[in-house]
Amino acid sequence: MSLVLVTGGAGFIGSHLTRGLLAAGYAVRILDTLSPQIHGGVPSGLDWLAQPGIEFRRGSVTSHRDLADALNGAEFVVHLAAETGTGQSMYEIAKYNDVNAQGTAVLLDILANTAQRSVRRVVLASSRSIYGEGAYVCRACSPQVRVWPGSRPAEQLRAHRWEFPCPSCGADMEAVPTREDDRISPASIYAATKYAQEQLIAISCGSLGIGFVNMRFQNVYGEGQSLQNPYTGILSIFSTRIRRGLHLPLFEDGQESRDFVHVEDVANAVIAALRSDVTAAAINVGSGIKTSVQDVAEKLSAAFGRAPDLKITSEFRLGDIRHNFADVGRLRDLLGYVPAISLDDGLKRFAAWVGTQPLPEDRSQAANAELQARKLMG
User: Fold this and answer.
1) Complete DSSP assignment for 120-170
2) What is the DSSP-derived secondary structure letter of residue 84?
3) Would you call 190 a catalytic residue per the annotation?
4) Which of 39, 149, 291, 369 could form a disulfide with 164 if both were Cys (CB 3.0 to 4.6 A apart)?
5) How confident is the model at residue 159 (pLDDT cuts 50, 70, 90)?
6) What integer is the mean pLDDT of 1-25?
7) Do strands 219-221 and 135-138 pair parallel, antiparallel, or not at all (unpaired)?
């Protein structure tokens, strides 16, 4: 039975992935710090870690000893462990770099200096954030020419000019699916650390003869995601406010868009990557469907059986992108996987699960106030 080490495996994606791995016949070893920001001050709801086939170790990827012990005997590594949250990363820079980039460097340093390596494939949980803005075209003057805008300057956002004008004719450009060979342009410290992870793995695994797949996750949602963390997961934030009878604040004009992909599809895509014979690839993992924040807020409200109570605030966060959704052709062609769960069905499942959970405090306003105090939000 092949052993898979899943770093950060006690979290949201890891819990779904572990169930899938066990069902597929793998043994699973999990290394996780049980971060209070994700799991709460007193971790709970982790009884599933005691089931047969799972070995749990509490430790950090920044600890050479913890990681070396966890790697012993593993044939596969799924590297999920990371600090997440675009806004928070802009002022906890050293922390994000230490866990994300340095933690990956420690992993690779151990692999490079282990004479009898058992690991033969590494799958990284990377992020769509590395692209920055997605790809755009101007339908008015050059519909066949793909362009990749830079970050929107604060002056543009303060003037509530949300979309990107065509540099040739001035018309608003239209977002198109982002491909893996499109321009990489991180717009946050978090994104920069995720791209650093990709580069470290591509270079090191390539030189060591270890297969790797860097999987660029889109906006992952679903049952089991943290309802405690106000820095990530717009659907978690919205679900708490819906349950508390509060309005849903929509930044900018509510039309910024993302690619929402259910966690079960993400877990299945990772398992497909482990089973594949792909030796070196970057692969988008998403639904391939563009959905505005307003649309997802309306759909989530309906999933809870509530009328949408939306408020367009015109607030913005520096470093936020306007649009990004994935071209998932490589996911289909290289891994043979096509996402199966629609957004409507996924939101119904998510809302049903949320209804079984204790009602958390709404900490979104406090998180926003912290960003405003640091002049990262307007």
Assistant:
1) -EEEEEEEGGGGSS-EEEETTTEEEEEE---PPPHHHHHTT--SPBPTTT-
2) -
3) yes
4) 149
5) very high
6) 96
7) unpaired
Residue 221's nearest CA partner among 8, 79, 12, 7 is 12
The residue among 11, 279, 262 whose CA lies nearest residue 123 is: 279
CA–CA gap between residue 303 and residue 62 (Å, rounded): 40
Contact 286, 328 (CB under 8 A): yes
Q: Centre a 10 Å sphere on the Cβ of residue 143 and count the other Cβ atoms it contains.
A: 11
Percentage with pLDDT > 90 across the chain: 83
pLDDT at position 44 over 80:
no
- What is each CA distance from 258 to 13, 220, 295, in whole angstroms? 19, 10, 10
In the block, tokens 């490589």 appear at 330
Q: 360 or 119: whose pLDDT is higher?
A: 119
Quote the pLDDT of residue 42: 39
Cβ neighbours of 39 (radius 10 Å): 19
Please pick, among 136, 190, 195, 337, the residue that the annotation labels catalytic.
190
pLDDT digits (tens, 9 = 90+) for 327-352: 999 999 999 999 999 999 999 999 99
What is the spatial distance between Cα 31 and Cα 337, in angstroms, rounded to a whole number? 27
3-state secondary structure of 75: coil
Q: Do 308 and 297 meet the contact criterion of CB atoms below 8 Å apart? A: yes
Are the C-beta atoms of 234 and 86 separated by less than 8 Å? no
SS3 state of residue 118: coil
List domains and CATH numbers for the chain.
3-132+179-227+259-288+322-342 (3.40.50.720), 135-177 (no CATH)
All residues at 6 or more sequence positions from 368 whose CB lies less than 8 Å from its CB, including other chains: 315, 377
Instruction: Give the whole-angstrom CA distance, residue 195 versus residue 33.
Output: 22
pTM of the model as a whole: 0.94
